[in-house]
Task: inverse folding
């Protein structure tokens, strides 16, 4: 018998995060539903279980050191290891948000969740991931963080909030650095773009469903051992940095 694959998805109580949890759970995996809101977390776990998925709740605020440490301890005590980490939790900081008007406090808050939160969670979970035979880390990014696309004539990416855009560029850079440091391990780490997905993050203005948005994370979470690392991908393939 093979061991059941264990995954943790942050921000998994709704939207893309929930669909990532559902998609990975449908593979027969055991899913840790990471979320800071207890009621929403419990509701998500109940819904997943009703669909036949082996899910359990993980109290997790990615912006809080103690919360992240407690989450790592919970997973260690309950399952002893972690095979896949999907860093999905993120905030926009609200709109409008132009470089000349954005409050520095907003930038700090967005970076705390979208970048520092990813570093905080990843580093806390690394000892558990090292116990896996095929560890994977997926950082949910966005093509709005692509400097190439942002500066290509003829491409209009819309009025994206400045702090959010910059946080995804920063996250991509961090992903590359992790891949370089972990290149001599079995850990594969990549950034994934879900596309313009309708979620409460953007006021449900997207053109893709959360299930469609989750597809890239599920793909990157299930890469073979000879798969890529340190890359940036969407459903169509490689995204330019």
Result:
């Amino acid at each position: 018998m093979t061991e059941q694959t264990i995954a943790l998805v942050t921000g998994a109580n709704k939207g893309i995060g929930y669909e990532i949890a559902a998609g990975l759970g449908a593979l027969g995996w055991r899913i840790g539903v990471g979320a800071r809101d207890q009621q929403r977390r419990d509701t998500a776990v109940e819904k997943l279980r009703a669909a036949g998925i082996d899910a359990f709740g993980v109290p997790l605020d990615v912006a809080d050191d103690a919360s992240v440490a407690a989450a790592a301890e919970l997973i260690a005590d309950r399952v002893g290891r972690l095979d896949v980490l999907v860093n999905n939790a993120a905030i926009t900081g609200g709109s409008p948000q132009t470089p000349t008007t954005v409050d520095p406090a907003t930038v700090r808050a967005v970076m705390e969740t979208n970048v520092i939160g990813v570093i905080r969670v990843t580093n806390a979970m690394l000892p558990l991931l090292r116990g896996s035979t095929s560890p994977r880390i997926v950082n949910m990014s966005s093509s709005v963080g692509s400097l190439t696309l942002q500066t290509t004539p003829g491409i209009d990416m819309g009025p994206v909030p400045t702090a959010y855009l910059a946080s995804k560029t920063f996250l991509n850079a961090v992903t590359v650095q992790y891949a370089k440091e972990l290149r001599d391990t079995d850990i594969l780490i990549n950034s994934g773009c879900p596309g313009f997905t309708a979620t409460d993050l953007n006021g449900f203005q997207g053109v893709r469903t959360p299930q469609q948005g989750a597809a890239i994370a599920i793909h990157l979470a299930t890469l073979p051992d000879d798969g890529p690392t340190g890359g940036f991908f969407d459903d169509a393939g490689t995204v330019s940095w």
In short: The longest strand covers residues 30-35. The mean pLDDT is 94. The beta strands are 6-10, 30-35, 54-59, 84-87, 136-140, 188-192, 232-234, 237-238. Helices lie at 15-25, 38-50, 65-78, 104-129, 147-150, 162-181, 210-221.
